[in-house]
Amino acid sequence: MSAVREDIRDFLRREPAAILVEVTGAAGSTPRDTDAWMLVSERAIFATIGGGQLEYMAIDQARRAIRSGLSAEPMTVPLGPEIGQCCGGRVGLSFTAMHPALADDLIARSDKDMAERPHVYVFGAGHVGDALVMALSLAPLRVVLVDTREEELTACTVPRIETCLTAMPEAVVRAAPEGSSFVILTHDHALDFLIAAEALKRADAAYVGMIGSKTKRATFRNWLTREIGRADLFDRLVCPIGATALKDKRPPVIATLAAAEIMTAALMWRAQTQEAVRGRG
User: Fold this and answer.
1) Does the CA dihedral 215-218-224-225 come out positive or negative?
2) What pLDDT digit, counting tens, does each position of 89-135 carry?
């Protein structure tokens, strides 16, 4: 399995004089909460605290500190008409010059965030599969594109995703962590059915979806009943993926509609699981 890591390390290597801007307070309606942060250097930024005039003010404050060599004072910004934002809340910001220990902490935080992201396994590196991983690549998810064909995986150049070449994709399903999502759209209907059946056996899956038509859906239901004797599993299957009133079969359209559906399911599963853990505590 090959992986592409987000480039906070590269940013810190390129911009060692960066300043960390953190949201320390968020009262009322605000663009981001107190988990938001960004890095600002003289030439570039990494991540975001929500955009808009608030972010421009933060960037300006950080860059003036870099140029002067002085510490940047904390800011408390009311989000009203006076700065051209109508959120109505109030945001507190802190500014910390980069140093080795802080860089190590940010890298550790970034790695922890990546490790905790819900996994999404996309089976099939065809036209829809490539478009789907492209749509999902910007989301806070860990996306893995799985295929039995090396040439198809090699042709996919989408950044920030992982690829997995395997002769047994159903084994990938069995090894996936809890809360994973499985999206099935291979070049072979029999393989689709095999992977989907394996995924549906996982009661801890956040989402199981398969591309298809009404005919394929009915065929798969019959196959589940005949071969596995578990027609009840079928109720958990989303087929077709990205199903809306919009009847558009173009791969980018299917991928865009499905991406929102998958991300919603994956993040809701994680939020509900975290809430249950807090409730037990």
Assistant:
1) negative
2) 889 999 999 999 999 999 999 988 888 899 999 999 999 999 999 99
